[in-house]
């Protein structure tokens, strides 16, 4: 089960973060921000290979006792971070990859909105409902 989805700007500030309301939201903010160091390490390690292969999915960033944190980065260095409940063993890497592609597609729709100012927090109802359906779908 996905318990947190975050979109982080190129400058490492959150554009959007959504977590399961029953959980400790501050804990997920902390997990997302600590995962940014791992994302930066993976991006610098891949370097030019990331651009050449067009592989945007970073895979598992780090596991904790209760959760697994996955990462994805766009060509414009916007980062998507997803925290998944580790008890969900049925969730495969291909499913997480497709969830990130769906999230990236919805993010692109938000960016194409002429009324959205780049760099502002994402407050789109369509984007929010897509994230909610993605979190419910994984359950």
Automatic annotation (TrEMBL):
Chief location: cytoplasm
Localization, UniProt: Cytoplasm, Perinuclear region; Endoplasmic reticulum; Golgi apparatus, cis-Golgi network; Golgi apparatus
Keyword Coiled coil set for record: no
CDD domains listed in its UniProt record: TRAPPC2L (cd14854)
Alphabetical list of InterPro entries matching this protein: Longin-like_dom_sf, Sedlin, TRAPPC, TRAPPC2L
Record's keyword annotation contains Endoplasmic reticulum: yes
Cited Pfam families: Sedlin_N
SUPFAM superfamilies attached to this UniProt entry: SNARE-like
UniProt KW keywords: Endoplasmic reticulum, ER-Golgi transport, Golgi apparatus, Transport
Family, similarity comment: Belongs to the TRAPP small subunits family. Sedlin subfamily.
Quaternary structure (record): Part of the multisubunit transport protein particle (TRAPP) complex.
Protein name: Trafficking protein particle complex subunit
Organism, scientific name: Equus przewalskii (Przewalski's horse)
